[in-house]
Amino acid sequence: MPDRYIKKILEARVYDVAVETPMEEAKGLSERLKNRILLKREDEQPVFSFKLRGAYNKMQQLTEEERACGVVAASAGNHAQGVAMSAKKLGIKATIVMPKTTPDVKVTNVRRLGGKVVLHGDAYDDASTYAKKLVEEKGMTYVHPFDDPDVIAGQGTVAMEILRQESGPIDAIFVPVGGGGLVAGIAAYVKYLRPETKVIGVESEDSACLHAAMAAGERVVLPQVGIFADGVAVAQIGEYTFEVAQRCVDEVITCSTDEICAAIKDIYDDTRSICEPAGALGVAGMKKYVEREGCEDRTLIAIDSGANVNFDRLRHIAERSELGEKREAIIAARIPEKAGSFKKFCSALGKRNITEFNYRYSDDSNAIVFAGIQLKAGGDGRDELITELREQEYEVEDLSDNEMAKIHVRYMVGGHAPGNLENEVIYRFEFPERPSALMNFLSKLGGKWNISLFHYRNHGAAYGRVLVGMQVPPEERDQVGAFLKEIGYNYWEETDNTAYQLFLG
Engineered SS bond to 74: which of 31, 131, 257, 300, CB 3.0-4.6 Å? Predict the structure, then answer.
């Protein structure tokens, strides 16, 4: 029964290694969502994740004999760091089995903390199976990342701090869910003391094992688990954790990759900290809840559960965050293949800024462009955009929810020019990035020569960067330089560039 966890949470010894983390108001989010939004900053733990609490609470209760045999754990990273740090504090040897897909930042930190790392399998469940094999072979104690009463109790200390830090009414607490240790610990404690407060689990759509179990009324195994939010990439909710969740969790909300990325940006905007995808789930779910319920003037708390993210993933996160916030639409449009078509198409977009523009000449009749268009946050801006373009007789396809288009196609638009393309010259431009910068550029470029290649992506930098191919007859080549100087932007001719010759020419 959930009640049995209350005493265990109150007696949990976590503060030998863990710290009481702050709860901060996210002022930007609060203003936007018209509610009081609080973030529980578990990303500020010594290992940048709440997992330290449960790991230490479990390990400090081991007998001397168990400590002498050492411990083994399976983890996608955060639990691993918690076990390694706890083992170092307690003088215990720790072996950590981690999926091969674990971010390098987590693997490196486990080794730095003294843990022995074994990389095995592609997901948590592969690592878990191998770790249990080591228990049988070497007699080590298995420290489960979530499905253990002592681990659940350790994670429950997060709720103890929340209720101490926020004495006023709390309408809902949004908790990231992987195997369920954190949501079980928080739900058991909160529902015992504040039954009127909703506890809402939030999962990635790619690994929604609790959502599936709630729907089925029993634990189920997901046939496939996505690893974008690697910290919650679990195929089956825990047995102990599901027992608590069934009784104490009010609902489970699932979020897409784009919605998670948008939440990472929201947290960064308010705190200047970068959390990992799993760590942003609470905020992502909270935003969906507010939109669905239309609630205002409530106190809502989201657990920022971790900040262990590889730096090189930030590019992908930044690309997807605008889509997740519904501030960008990705479209494909067919326009006439003739001088001036680009400018006319941009005019059809009205006052919307272009965030991306990809095009490569294919034939003399029509051009198909891949474009990113900036929208106002929320609302039905995408539908309005598509409707307006179709009313102006453009053939348009909305690709905003097309995963292949967003991950692959946007980077592959182009290729070698067909044999009937003549007199192409290539120029690279830099210009000050400001509202309507691309439209200004196209207006100055005008319809003097047919554009045969175009690539632009707004990266939020001070300067916009554009690659342009134009069909310029040999007798007009001497006019190009004078014309571009008149435009006034920095430019470089790249017609002889090896990369262009190999892949685009």
Answer: 131
Does the domain at 51-142 match CATH 3.40.50.1100? Answer given as: yes
Letter string b/e over residues 249-272, b meaning 16 or more CB atoms within 10 A of that residue's CB: beebbbbbbbbbbbbbbbbbebbe
**Per-residue pLDDT tens over the stretch 1-32:** 667 899 999 999 999 999 999 999 999 999 99
Q: Which of 51, 106, 198, 287 is catalytic?
A: 51
Question: What's the confidence (pLDDT) of residue 241?
Answer: 97
Catalytic annotation, pick one of 49, 305, 341, 400: 305
Q: CA 310, 74, 95: angle at the middle one, nearest 5?
A: 95
Share of the chain above pLDDT 90, in %: 49
Task: Name the pairing type of β-strands 141-142 and 71-74.
Answer: parallel
What are the CA-CA distances from residue 327 to residues 46, 212, 323 (Å)?
Answer: 35, 30, 6
Q: Which of 206, 193, 183 is nearest to 302 (CA)?
A: 183
Contacts of 346 (CB under 8 A, 6+ apart): 354, 438, 439, 442
What's the pLDDT at 342?
Answer: 77
In CATH terms, the fold of domain 326-503 is Biosynthetic Threonine Deaminase; domain 3 (3.40.1020)
Identify the pLDDT of residue 400: 86
Residue 406 per-residue DSSP state: I
- Told to judge if 51 belongs to the known catalytic residues of this protein, a careful annotator would answer yes
Tell me the pairing of strands 198-204 and 172-176: parallel
Judged by DSSP in three states, 300 sits in strand
On the CB side of 179, CA atoms within 13 Å amount to 24
> Per-domain residue ranges for the chain?
4-49+149-321, 51-142, 326-503
**What's the CA gap between 62 and 69, in Å, rounded?**
11
CATH fold, domain 4-49+149-321, is Rossmann fold (3.40.50)
Is the pLDDT confidence value at 196 over 70?
Answer: yes
